[in-house]
Design brief:
Elements (H helix, E strand, L loop, with lengths): L5 E7 L3 E8 L5 E7 L6 H5 L5 E6 L6 H8 L3 E5 L16 H14 L10 H33 L13 H9 L5 H32 L5 H7 L7 H11 L8 H7 L4 E6 L2 E7 L5 H11 L10 H6 L5 H24 L4 H21 L2
Helix pairs in contact: 4-6, 4-8, 7-8, 7-13, 8-10, 9-13, 10-13, 12-13
Length: about 375
């Protein structure tokens, strides 16, 4: 029997898994399908001879298979689906078996980009943050529905404050419609909005509690020293990045977050385009929102001073340098060079990620 490495591609689904095994020494190919939950494929992998290297795509089945595999001494890895090399236009047939075979061959060739598997505690915090992000999106859609309903009825808010302030919400309570259909629609939309608002506030309170005692507490304490980064933003960044120290330099972090320019360079011509938008959409949005705070001159508000209490001196110093540096960037790009504010915010967010890296990794 051959002692070559078995490269295994797994196309994992909730109720069945397609398996393709490539023998490194003989080139022999085995195909199989295991019916059952994802972890039920482990006895099959354990029965293969020689060193086994298995891989599957990150997806809705999560990281349970890779964790169980490592606990059993089986080398199971997870790859990034968006970074898998695509086939040519001649490949028009896509099946689970073909996908598994493709993964096995690419794993053997070293053409897959592995995903860093979070710990159970890190994943739990990330799920909490993403739940809050889902509620934020639902709340925004609920407000849009109410606004568009009133717009169609030619009902306009003319108060001194902006929409969705306390004054605006009190005004909505006074609205009444003459026909039952419109009244029922409006009241249902308003009830949905209030329910989502309560859910958001409850999640915010939970996040404050979790941030004070979790695997990211030290990093959150440091990041909260930065202007524009509250507990929610800090914990959100930590949950998406997980370990800032796995990036050897800050430019790798900004590339991971997708806030670096795309590039098309050939010969002596260098062309840069819009940002790559790789990585976590949530983390990128948090950084861009925080970047807008640096449009104002550097200052220490009472809120920021409270957040910096009990924080390391190095983190406080880095936060102040960030204020001075990033405010200067806003002035040079927007005022002196006339760049659009949205473009400047992206550039400032990129540099802000570098300061976050320094703050989180400095001893």
């Amino acid at each position: 029997m051959s002692n070559g490495t078995r490269w295994v591609g797994l196309d994992v689904h909730a109720k069945r898994t397609a398996i393709a095994v490539v023998d490194d020494a003989t080139g022999e190919i085995q195909k199989n399908t295991i019916y059952g939950r994802p972890h039920e494929v482990l006895p099959y992998l354990a029965g293969l001879e020689g060193p086994v290297r298995a891989v599957y795509e990150a997806g809705p089945t999560g990281y349970g298979l890779v964790r169980r595999g490592r606990d059993s001494g089986i080398d199971v890895r997870v790859c990034a689906p968006g970074l898998i090399p695509t086939s040519g236009p001649g490949s028009r047939i896509k099946t689970d078996a073909r996908d598994a075979m493709k993964l096995a061959r690419l794993l053997a060739a070293g053409q897959l980009t592995e995903v860093t598997v979070p710990t159970v505690q890190q994943e739990n915090v990330r799920d909490l943050i993403r739940a809050r992000e889902d509620v934020r999106g639902d709340l925004m859609r609920a407000r849009h529905r109410i606004g568009k309903l009133l717009l169609r009825r030619e009902i306009y808010w003319t108060g001194p404050a902006q929409a969705w302030t306390m004054a605006h919400r009190d005004w909505l309570n006074t609205l009444r419609f003459s026909d039952p259909a419109s009244e029922a629609t409006f009241q249902d939309y308003l009830h949905a909005h209030d329910t989502l608002l309560g859910r958001r506030d409850e999640l915010d309170r939970t996040i404050e509690t979790v941030a004070a005692n979790c695997v990211f507490t030290d990093q959150v304490t440091r990041l909260r020293c930065m202007r524009g980064i509250s507990t929610l933003t800090a914990l959100g960044l930590c949950a998406e990045v997980r370990d800032f120290e796995r990036f050897k330099k800050p430019t790798l972090l900004s590339a991971f977050l997708g806030i670096v320019p795309s590039e098309n360079t050939s010969g002596e011509k260098r062309r840069q385009g819009s940002i790559t938008k790789a990585g976590s959409v949530h983390a990128r949005r948090l950084l861009v929102e925080a970047a807008w705070h640096y449009r104002k001159p550097p200052r220490m508000s009472s809120t920021l001073k409270r957040r910096q209490q009990d924080a390391p001196a190095a983190a406080i110093d880095c936060a102040w340098r960030a204020q001075r540096r990033l405010y200067g960037r806003w002035q040079r790009l927007e005022v002196e060079r006339g760049k659009r504010p949205a473009i400047v915010a992206i550039a400032v967010a990129r540099e802000l990620s570098h300061f976050c890296w320094e703050t989180a990794t400095t001893a």
